[in-house]
TrEMBL record, chain A:
The organism of origin for this protein: Pleomorphomonas carboxyditropha
Cell compartment(s), UniProt: Membrane
Coiled coil: none
Span of the signal peptide: none
Name by which UniProt lists this protein: Hydrogenase
Bilayer-spanning residue ranges: 6-31, 71-97, 109-128, 140-161, 191-209, 242-261, 267-285, 297-318
This protein's UniProt keywords: Membrane, Quinone, Transmembrane, Transmembrane helix
Automatic annotation (TrEMBL), chain B:
Domain NADH:ubiquinone oxidoreductase-like 20kDa subunit: residue ranges: 22-133
Keywords of the record: 4Fe-4S, Cell membrane, Iron, Iron-sulfur, Membrane, Metal-binding
Signal peptide limits: none
Name of this protein: NADH-quinone oxidoreductase subunit B
């Protein structure tokens, strides 16, 4: 049906994926930089600094290093942005936007969330730089470590929501949101707090923020996979990471706290929730903690968030 | 001034090269970025880890024989149009190391320098002034 296709295209390209998510992600990024600066008692850059940076990068030239795989090097950032635009269209905004089931369920979303990390690995190895290769191996190690807590937290929520719906597991985010709007948000259920903590600890590693910005560490591996990028290609990678923060934070809100009222106010509440998670969950850790070593980060994830995730799953299932 | 030029003026990314510096100037550079009173981030600046992302390059140190080739190669990697800022007295004249055997400087024998920031080490205010001047030069080159 052409109608349906047009709606889907609109969702992916304009709202809530595409343009809207890009603008919102960049504002969240600016808010984060500003918040970190304020926590360090600096003035900080203007809120629209990320927009300015992206525009500047778009006005520069992309250099392709000698000895790189040109095709992969130039197309990897495009893939990351496309995957994240689709993923952003799959995130429900409580009371305002319900993603179409045609876009796919949560399994598709979980696969899409890993795409930017895979792209970063591809980009790092295609650039032909030894620093890119180090970034590649670090990205892979930390990805293996943080995927566990993510999956455990998501499965715990999906099983609880499925129980309310009379299914073994609820795989549609829209259903999970609907259940919470009837039964009360899962953030109020102490049995799901371990899962919530596991999800919160997954956010900084997935977004590549301190103390888990190890694959892209400027001072040790010269930004790793991003080292050889410049101009629009670098801009696209930055856009993909801005989109990813909307996706990951929006997914967290949909899983645990979709409490917005119906209509336009729902969008506003959702935006505020995203801002609060960014400042409290990301900026605070960034301002307070230094970068970990890769072995410390992997051990940390395999110990605490993983344990929390398992505890969350057991509690959630035992309580059904 | 065109739109893009305005954009460019508000987003200069900085890259640091240590050409055999005693680290005094590097500490001052870190101070310029991190200490609340100075904060260059509010100008839109950002220290970047890769020479390929850089717009303005800050060089410290008297250019010793050991690092000369590496410094020149790194400088080549930075895309044009770039602005080169010599931070501290060492890259300008050699400073206290002036007539030393391993010194290949002053830096302008090898590279075109756009802005000089004097001092041993220069005060953060001076570095910020130098960066502001470099932004002027840089936006003229767009």
């Amino acid at each position: 049906m052409p109608d349906n296709i047009l709606t889907l295209l609109f969702a992916v390209l304009v709202f809530p994926g595409g343009l809207f998510a890009l603008a919102f992600g960049l504002i969240l990024r600016g808010l984060d930089r500003r918040a970190v600066a304020r926590m360090q008692r600096r003035v900080g850059p203007p809120l629209i600094q990320p927009f300015i940076d992206i525009l500047k990068l778009m006005g520069k030239r992309t250099m392709v290093p000698e000895g790189s795989n040109t095709f992969v090097f130039l197309w990897a950032p495009v893939v990351a942005v496309a995957a994240m635009a689709v993923a952003a269209a799959m995130i429900p905004i409580a009371g305002f936007y319900r993603p179409s089931a045609d876009l796919g369920d949560m399994l598709v979303l979980l696969y899409l969330v890993t795409v930017p990390a895979v792209v970063l690995m591809l980009a790092g190895s295609a650039s032909g730089s030894p620093f890119g290769a180090i970034g590649f191996s670090r990205e892979m190690a930390i990805m293996l470590a943080y995927e566990g807590p993510l999956l455990l937290a998501v499965v715990a929520v999906a099983m609880v929501a499925g129980h309310h719906l009379g299914q073994p597991i609820a795989l549609s985010l829209a259903d999970i949101v609907a259940v919470q709007r009837q039964q009360g948000a899962f953030i109020l259920d102490p049995m799901l707090w371990p899962a919530l903590l596991a999800y919160l600890s997954f956010i900084p590693a997935n977004l590549g923020f301190s103390p888990f910005d190890i694959p892209e560490a400027e001072s040790e591996v010269l930004e790793g996979p991003l080292l050889e990028y410049s101009g629009p290609a670098l801009g696209l990678l930055k856009l993909a990471s801005a989109l990813k923060s909307v996706v990951v934070i929006g997914l967290g809100i949909a899983l645990f706290c979709p409490i917005g009222p119906s209509g336009g106010a729902g969008l506003l509440v959702w935006a505020l929730q995203c801002a609060v998670v960014t400042v409290c969950g990301v900026s605070l850790a960034k301002a307070a903690l230094g970068r970990m070593r890769i072995d410390q980060a992997v051990l940390f994830y395999l110990k605490w968030p993983e344990l929390l995730g398992i505890a969350g799953l057991v509690l959630a299932v035992a309580n059904l | 001034m065109g739109f893009m030029q305005k954009v460019f003026r508000r987003s200069p990314w900085l890259y640091r090269i240590n050409a055999g510096s005693c680290n005094g100037c590097d500490v001052e550079l870190a101070t310029t970025a991190c200490i609340p009173r100075y904060d260059v981030e509010r100008l839109g600046c950002q220290y970047c880890g890769s020479p390929k992302h850089a717009d303005i390059v800050l060089i410290t140190g008297p250019l010793t024989a050991r690092v000369k080739d590496k410094v020149l190669r790194l400088w080549e990697e930075i895309p044009d149009p770039k602005v080169t800022v010599a931070v501290g007295i060492c890259p300008i004249s050699g400073g206290v190391f002036r007539d030393g055997l391993p010194i290949e400087g002053p830096l302008d024998r090898w590279l075109p320098i756009d802005v000089n920031v004097q001092g041993c080490p220069p005060r953060p205010q001076a570095i910020i002034e130098g960066i502001a001047k470099a932004i002027e030069v840089w936006s003229d080159r767009q």
